Structure formats: C-alpha cells, structure tokens
Amino acid sequence: MKKIILYNKLRFIYTAFVLFIFVSCDPDKNDTPPPVVTPVQFAKGADISWLTQMESSGRIFYNSSGTAQECMQLLKSLGMNSIRLRVWVDPAGGWNNTADVVAKAIRAKNLGMKIMIDFHYSDSWADPGQQTKPAAWLAQDFTTLQTSVYNHTFNVLTALKSSGVTPEWVQVGNETNDGMLWPTGKASVNMANFAALINKGYDAVKAVDATIKVIVHISNGHDNSLFRWIFDGLKNNSGKWDIIGMSLYPDPANWSAMNSQCLANINDMIARYDKPVMICEVGMSWDQAATCQSFLTDLINKVKSVPNNKGLGVFYWEPQCYGNWQGYTKGAFDNSGKPTIALNAFN
Fold first, then answer.
1. Residue 22's pLDDT band (boundaries 50, 70, 90)?
2. Contact of 229 with 177, CB cutoff 8 Å
3. Which pLDDT value is given to residue 17?
4. CATH number at residue 48
5. Packing angle between helix 289-304 and helix 255-273, nearest 10 degrees?
6. Is 307 exposed, middle or buried (0-12, 13-18, 19+ CB in 10 A)?
7. How many helices (H) and strands (E) does the chain have?
8. Is residue 10 part of a domain?
9. CA–CA distance, 192 with 236 (Å, rounded to integer)
10. Is position 29 within any domain?
11. Fewest C-beta in 10 Å: which of 15, 182, 230, 341?
C-alpha cells in the first residue's frame, strides 16, 4: 500500500511538472511587454532658404536681449524643431542650388533639426502664378522632361544623403495649384501629365530613401474646392503622395475664419484620401506681431487637434526676414533684427 501511495505521489508530481513546462513553453503565451510607441513629434518649423544670402549681405540676427546669434540656433531656442529649404535647378547667383541647399541642411542637421526639402523644378520661383520650366529643360519632350524631374530630384537628395543628411519630408513641386512645369504639366490642361511628373519625383525620392515622406503642396489651405479638384485629379490619374501640404496667408482681419476653414479642409482631406496634412507655409505682416501670435497659436492648436496625429506640423515662411529684405514684409523679426512676439506661438 505504501508503494502505491508513493507511486501516486510521484506520478502527480511528474504530471504537475510536465504541465508547468508545457504552459511555460506555450508558443501562444506572450510574456513580452508591448513595444513602446514613440509619439509623433509635431513639426514646428521655418523655411529659412534666404539665410545664406542674407548672411552674405551682412545681415545679423539677435535674440530678444540684443545678443547676436546664429539664426537657426535662435529659431531652435524659440521652439522650432524643423527647417524647410527650397531647391532651384540653375538659379542666377547660385542661391538655392544644390550646394547652397546642402550647406544649409548640414547646419540644420547638426542642430538636431528635421529637414524638409522643397523642389520648385524651376530656376526661380514656382508658385500659383508661375511654374516656369528651367532653361535647360525648355526644349525637352515629355519623356525627357520626366527623366529630368527624376534625375534632378535623385541627384539633389543623393548629395544630401552623401553629406549625412536624410530629409524627413520632400515636396515634389511648390504650390502646384495648377500643376507644374507649364505648359506641359499644367493641371487644368493635362492632369495626367501633372500626375506623371509628380510620380517621377515621388519615385526618385523613394529610390534615395524609402522612409522619406513625399508632399504635394497647394496654396490657399482654406479653399476646399481647390484641394478636392487637385487631389481628385491626381488620384484619378494614379498620382502618388504621402502627405498633403498647404499654405495659409490670412490678413489680420480674417485669420480666425480662415483658420476654421483650413481645419475643415484638413479634416476633409484626411477623410477623403486617408493622408496626413502639413501646413508648409504661413505668414503675416511683421508689424502685426500680436495678431500674428494669436493666428499662429490658434492654427497650431487646431492642427494638433486633428485626430490620430494626422495634423503633422506648421512652418513659418522666412520668419528671419527684416528691414524689407527683398521687399518681403511677412517675416517675424523687427527692423532691429530681433524676433517679434509672433514666434512665441512656437514655444
């Protein structure tokens, strides 16, 4: 009898041990803690593409105490974490060419700032009123023009990457309200051509680094019908993009209404195309600093309020401009070269 009892005890212990091992080794049992999800950093930035040209002309930038300070470092101290830089193909004087862009991007990267590259696909300004082909591309047929877009995009980004800079975002075109590289890529004339050119830029970006997000950028962020027309047209022609970019330049009297319209447009774009949105340009007259601060604070809060972190950020366009630089009056520095209170919105 004692042997039977001992045998049963041993059998019980053995069975319990086997069950313990089985449960411990169960492949369906997951004891690994869930991965830590890093929150998406909201981009608070500035386009400072004029900076090297301003520095070469002797312009100096000062903090609020009147101490001279390097401009990007000054903007970082005011709460900015991102820098936007435009690229021109063969600009007169060299400003905003590949070498100039790389030099500025390295400075921003060394400060730990994220970088947006803005391809204009022109030798000078591209915007809703002008999308002029680079002089070297004027006689090209459509196939060759697509190759030029690809090569230019690829070469600039490769130069950046070779210098240790991988942009977070790349704009394929600037304020392309009616397409780009007119007349070939004018959207109101040939949306399919516009989409094909966008796709060449998109493919070139991804060939350099698949993690870079591609932006298609349109002005008048309050104008929902414009955005639906462009992005419906791109979608219907197999256009590719990762982020919808907007500009917003209200007047001191209408900024509140335009911010509300812009937020409604943002939410519609996300619902309609399932893509996040970035405010790539904003500005207001430098001498309306208090109103501009209210405008920016409200806009930043509205973009941050977009569900699921799909409102990605806000960039001020050339805030460091002062003293009527190039006739531009929508900077955010006063005539002594100090930032106005408008930029407090980025803190």
1. very low
2. no
3. 46
4. 3.20.20.80
5. 20
6. exposed
7. 9, 8
8. no
9. 9
10. no
11. 15
